[in-house]
Amino acid sequence: MNKAEIKNVLLEKLKAENCFWSYDSASWDKATDEQLIEKTMVYLDLPEIEQLFELYSYKKVKQVWLHRMVPQGEYLYTLNRFFAWYYFHAKNPDQYLKTQETRYWNHFAA
User: Fold this and answer.
1) Is position 84 within any domain?
2) Is 24 a domain residue?
3) Long-range Cβ contacts of 86-91 (<8 Å, 24+ apart)
4) Measured over all CA atoms, what is the biggest interatomic distance in the chain, rounded to whole angstroms?
5) Of 82, 59, 56, 80, which is closest to residue 70 (Cα–Cα)?
């Protein structure tokens, strides 16, 4: 499957999960890479998340996770803890998440 096909499959699965409920249906296919990565990681399963790494670089997926999901703290804590351990190989996921969340918010306080 090529990258365009992977992206279309992910978008269709997200639509089926009603993840774009707040979007105009004409703009679903115009979701940004960041939106696609975040929504896939939050709403879809491991096979689809694996497809993200075929579609985007490890660095891109991690960057979106760090900037869009980790700052949500307790709301996505269990999910982020899993991602930190499984995909991003954090030796101490709890400490890693706390450090990354603090770093993110301190960036805005400076």
Assistant:
1) yes
2) no
3) 87/49, 87/61, 87/62, 88/62
4) 45
5) 80
Q: What is the pLDDT of residues 13-53, one digit of tens each?
A: 998 988 877 666 666 667 899 999 999 999 999 999 999 99
Range of 55's domain? 3-18+31-109
Q: Is residue 100 assigned to a domain?
A: yes
Could you tell me the two tokens for 35? 């939106």
In the chain, how many domains are there?
A: 1
* 50-74 pLDDT tens trace: 999 999 999 999 999 999 999 999 9
Other Cβ atoms less than 10 A from the Cβ of 33: the count is: 14
On whether residue 23 sits in a domain, the answer given is no
- Cα separation, 95 vs 29, in Å, equals 37
